[in-house]
Amino acid sequence: MKMRVLIYRQAAALQGGFATKSDRGETGGPGDAGRLSHIIVNRAFLVLLMPELVILFRHHYDLIKSEWNTGGLRAAAVALRGARTNMGARLHAETGHELSARQEEILTIVHHQGFATIDALARHFDVSTQTIRRDIIYLDEQQLLQRFHGGAGVRETTVRLGYAEKRVTAAEAKERIARLAAALIKPGETVFLDVGTTVEAVARALRGRGGLKVFTSSLASATILSAEQEAEVFVTGGVLRGPDGSLTDEWAREAVSRFRFDVAILGFSGIDDDGALMDFDLGKVAVKQAVATRASRIIAVGESAKLLRPAIVRVLDADRIDTLVTNEEPPQLVAETLGKANVEVLFPPA
After folding, report:
1. Which CATH architecture best describes the domain 167-346?
2. 3-state secondary structure the chain
């Protein structure tokens, strides 16, 4: 949490050093300086992977302050963005690594968007996908970005979002996924609900659907459905693991093996190069795999960002998945990979 403190302190220092438009006798509200620091702080929080922002605050304070006092919020934001864009190239020039203009722009695009696909970058630069792939491999080797399946994203740290943060992250996207996935479940079916915030959204979407038998290893999903009088809810049992209320260990696996499911709704954290589902938690993975052997249909649910990154351990090969539901059309390479495995990919209309 030291990084958050540093970011707040630096943002506060910036705010204290800027003159507002009203101070200069210009039009505009007195809160512009506060809004600038708010934008800077939130940009850092969105990524939590950008400790170099602290360096930017320290080394470019005078420049950003000057731009603010002469041009206001927009000019200061442009100055900060420009300083950040050039920092990677400058640092690597000092260590003997030089980046091409295209590689510098790739970094800018990835840091601005959070991730970018190889296909989109190839179209943007009007070069082959092989050329972009080589650039991404080099930038990944230099630890400037992280190579993902079909593209590149901001380099991750070993810190993963906690449960409370996951519940509010991409909440609207999860609800859209949930409504589409719930529509695939037929009246009277026996359903298994996995753990995770996206699957919890599916549980909410199933409320009011009578005649279902729902099995789950998630106390959160069971609680969501607990007031449903026309649905039977069964909890697997097992060892309670983490704040998300997930149940794992051999107790959960043994309970799952006793039943047969018409459909299993499985969450995931990423996909492998061949389209296999991946996750981070070995204990949860074992339960997912046990469920997969007992389900007639498997529906995987997850936000589109997860389609562009790997995790630690493989959960299920792509050819075992019947349907994957996400919030937007996946990148072409991902869609082709899943298509070869006969996975039906569904997403809401734009």
Report:
1. 3-Layer(aba) Sandwich (3.40)
2. CHHHHHHHHHHHHHHHHCCCCCCCCCCCCCCHHHHHHHHHHHHHHHHCCCCHHHHHHHHCHHHHHHHHHHHHHHHHHHHHHHHHHHHHHHHHHHCCCCCCHHHHHHHHHHHHHCEEEHHHHHHHHCCCHHHHHHHHHHHHHCCCCEEECCEEECCCCCCCCCHHHHHHCCHHHHHHHHHHHHCCCCCCCEEEECCCHHHHHHHHHCCCCCCCEEEECEHHHHHHCCCCCCCEEEECCCEEECCCCEEEHHHHHHHHHCCCEEEEEEECCEECCCCCEEECCHHHHHHHHHHHCCEEEEEEECCHHHHHCCCCEEEECHHHCCEEECCCCCCHHHHHHHHHCCCEEECCCC
